[in-house]
Amino acid sequence: MPEYKTEPLKCWPKAKELRQKYYLDYQEAHDKKGLRWTGGAWAFDAIPAGLGRDVYNITGEPYGASIAFDKKLSMECLEAAEAKGWARDLCSYMRNYWGSMYLNKYAFGGEYPKPDFCFQDHICCSHGKWYQHVAEYKDIPYFCIDVSVGPYKDLDENRLMFVVNQMHESIEWLEKITGRKYQDELLIEAVENEVRSTSTWAEICCLNMNRPAPLDEKTMYSLYVHGTLAKHSGEMADFYEELRDEVKYRVDNHIAALPNERCRLMSDTQPPWGFLEVFRYLEQFGAISVGSLYTFGLIGIWETKPDGTWGPRTTPMQKGESITTRDQALRVLADWNLSKPEWQHFYDPNLKTEMMLQIAKQWQLDGVMLHLNRGCEGLSCGIMENRLGIAKAGIPVMTFEGNMGDEREFDEKRVMTRIDSFMETLDMEILETPVGKA
Amino acid sequence: MRRLMFDKFHEWYEKRHDYARDWLAKNDGEVVGCFCSYVPEEILYAGGMLPVRMLGSHEPQDVTEPHIFGMYCPFCRDVLAQGLKGRYDYMKGIVLSQSCLHLRQAFTSWNNHVPVDFSFYLYMPNKVQTEHARPYYAAELIKIKGALEKWSGKSITDESLEAAVELYNENRRLMHEVYDLRKGPDPKVTGLEAMHMVASSFFVDKKDHNAELKRILPELKSRTLDRETGGRLMIVGSENDDTEFIAMVESVGATVVVDDHCTGSRYFWNLTERNGDLLQDIANRYLDRPPCPTKDWEERRRFPHILQLAKDFGVDGVILIQQKFCDPHECDMVPLKETLKEAGYPTLFLEFDVTVPIGPMRIRVEAFLEMLGVEELF
To answer: Do B127 and A91 touch (CB under 8 A)?
Structure first.
C-alpha cells in the first residue's frame, strides 16, 4: 500500500505553456519589430531588458538541453558540430547549440532564428568562447562580462566593481549597437523580478526538506528551468510564487512526490537529459532524489541564516530597500549573482563540498549520487574532491559517468547496475509493487 | 668533453629539482610554485623568492585519479602528480593565477593534499580586453604583494621591485635576441634548443639565466648549424615542453623556427613598459601579453599575432598541438586552422597526451613534411 497520497501539480500546464511561449516569443520577435539576443543561462539577462519590453532572449544551456532530450535532433546537431572539426569533449550544450545553428534548425520548429546580438558572461573556459563563435558565424555584435572575481566569501569592493563597471560598459555598448535609448526603470524592474524569482525558487527548494518530499528532482528539472530562461521576467517571478504556494499546500496536506518515500538522495550537476529514466529507476526502490546543489543553486539564491541553516536570500525589497538608480540596480545585480551557490565551487571544491554537506544534513539525506558529467567541465570541476569530502563525512556516495547532452557517452545499463549496488549498500531493495509517479 | 652551446639550459631543464635545492642552500628565501605562466613572478622575486613554473614529468601515472576527473587535461593531472609524489618536497609556497579550470584543479588539490605554508589564488581577470581590467588587476597585485610580505616577514620595497622588473625584462630581451636568430634562412638555434632555453628559465634564477644567455649570444651570432634546415615549422597550441616530440620533428627533415605557447614565446614576448606606478605597469604587462585562448575574447587578438610570427619567421607550415581535453585551445582550434589556411599556411593537428607513443606522431609529421615538399626526406 502506498504510504503517502500523490497528485499532479496543478500549475504544471502553466509551466509548459510559459516555456513554450518563451521559445515562440524569441522566434517571432522580429515579426513584432522587437529584438532577439542570445547568451548563457548565467548571463545578466536583466541588463538587456532595459532596451524595451520587446526584447527577447534565448539561453544556450537550456536550449542545448532541449535538443539533448530529442535524441534524433541531438545526434544531427552533434554530428554537424563534429563535421566542422570541433572536439567531441567540448561542452555538449555548446555543440548541440552550434549544430542547430549550422543546420539552421530551431529545436521548436522552423529555422534557427538569427539573433541581433550576443550577450554573455564568463566563468568557465567555454562561456566566453561559445558566443565568440556564434557572433563570428552570424556576423553579429558580442559583449561578455567577466565574473571570475573569486568566491563570494572573498568579495570586496574592487572585485564587485570590476563586474559593475563592465555592466555599465555593457549598457553603453547596448545603446550603441541597437540605437535604442536605455531605460533605467525597466532595468530596475528586471532586477527586482530577478531577485524575487531566484529567492522564491530557493524557498520552493526549502519546502523539499519536508518528509515526504512534495517534489522529486525530475519534476524540479522542469520547473527550475524557467529561471534559466528569463529569471528577470515578471511572468517567471509570478509563476514561482504561484508554484511556491502550491508546494506549500502539498506540504500542509502531505501530498508526496513519491508514495513510498523510503530513502532520500541528492544528485549533482546536470543530469543526462536523454536518460531521465534514471530517476524513475530509483523510485522502484522507494528512493527519491530531493534535489541537488545544481537544482537548488543554479537559479536559487541563498544565504546562511542566523541559526546556521541555509535559506532563501532576503531580497532588498524584503529588507525595505528600494532600488532607484542604474548604478544601484547594477550593484544589486552583481552582488546577488556573485553569491550564487553554483558559482562558488569554480574556485575551490571545498566550498562545494561544504554546501553539499549542508544540504545532506538539512534535507536529511541518506546518500549522494555524483554525475561525473563529461559534458560540462564547469560543473564537474573539482568533483572528485567533492567525492572524497562527502565520503570522509561518512555519507554514502556513488558516482556514475555520463554526459548531459551527448548520449553517446552514457551507458544506461552500467549506470543502472551501479545504482543497484548503491541501493544494496543502503539496504534498499526493489519494492514488490512498483510505485507510480505523483 | 667540449661543452655545447645549449648544454647548460638542457642540464637545468633536466635537473630542475637539484637546481632549486641548491638555490635554497645558497639563499635566504623560499621556492614558490607557479601554476600558469600568468603568475607575476617579478613580485615573488622581489620578495627574495625563487618562482618556479610547475610542469609535468611526461610520465604515465594514476595517482591523480581520485582527485581530478579523467575529462581534464593530462597536463593538469601530471602537474598534480608531481606534488602527490613528493617531487617538490622542498617547495613551501604555491600561487595560481586564474586562467583555465583544468589547472585550477591541480592547484586546489595540491592545497588539499600536499603540505604548503603559503598558497595564493590570484584572481587574474579573463577579460583582459576591457580597460576596467587594469585598475582591477593592479589592486589584486597589491593583495598578493601584501600576502607574500606577511608570509616571508620581509618587505617588498620599490627598489627590489624595480630591480626585479629590470632583471625580468632583461631576460625577455635576451631570449628575444636568441629567437631573432631563428628568422634567417639558416636558423642558428634548433627548436629543441630554444625549448630548453625557455623552459629552463621557468626554474632558474633569472640572474643565472641571463648570465648564460649573455655568454652564448656572441658566439651564437656567428654559429653555423651542421644540419639542413629542412621545412621551417611553427608549433602553436597549449602547454608544450615535450622535448622528445620536438627532437623527433627536427630529426625527420624540419626545423622548428618559432612557436606560440605559454611554455614558449608567449612567456617572454612582451616587456613591462614603465609608465608610472610599478604594480600597474606589471599588471599591464600581463594583461597585454600575447593571449592564451582563455583570455582572448571578445575580439581575437591571438590570431593576428600568430600570423605575424609565421610571416616574420618565414614559416612553411604549422603544427597545431593540443593537450587532450584542453577546452580553451579546443575552442580556438577550428577558427585558428581556418585563419592559417586562408593565409596560406598548411597545418597538421596533433592531440597530445603523455601516454601517446611517438611512433604514430612521427609518421604523421613525415607525411606533413612530404606534403610541404621538403626534399631532404628523399
So the answer is: no
Closest CA to A269 of A126, A402, A151, A413: A402
Q: How far is CA B292 from CA A399, B53, B328, in A?
A: 33, 16, 8
Q: Report which of B252, B261, B147 is spatially closest to residue B198, judged by C-alpha positions.
A: B261
- Phi, psi angles (nearest 5°) of residue B255: -130, 130
Distance CA B336, CA B339 (A): 5
Gap from A199 CA to chain B (nearest CA, Å): 28
pLDDT in tens, A334-388: 999 999 999 999 999 999 999 999 999 999 999 999 999 999 999 999 999 999 9
Interface ipTM: 0.96
Partner-chain residue, chosen from A125, A128, A384, that has the shortest CB–CB distance to B66 = A384
* A residues 326-385 closer than 8 Å to B (CB): 346-350, 372, 374, 377-378, 380-385
* Torsion (CA) A147, A148, A150, A156 in degrees, nearest 10: -40
Query: What's the CA gap between A336 and A231, in Å, rounded?
Result: 12
For every residue of A182-241, DSSP letters joined together read P-HHHHHHHHHHHHHHHHHHHHHHHHTTSSS-S--HHHHHHHHHHHHHHTT-HHHHHHHH
Please answer whether residues A248 and A240 qualify as being in contact, where contact means their C-beta atoms are separated by less than 8 angstroms.
no
3-class DSSP state of A304:
strand
For residue B53, which phi and psi values (nearest 5 degrees)? -75, 135
For the whole model, what pTM was predicted?
A: 0.96
Find the CB nearest B298 among A91, A132, A374.
A132
Residues B294 and A132: their CA atoms lie apart, in Å, by: 12
A90 → closest Cβ in B102, B298, B327: B327
CB contact under 8 A, A125 and B71: no
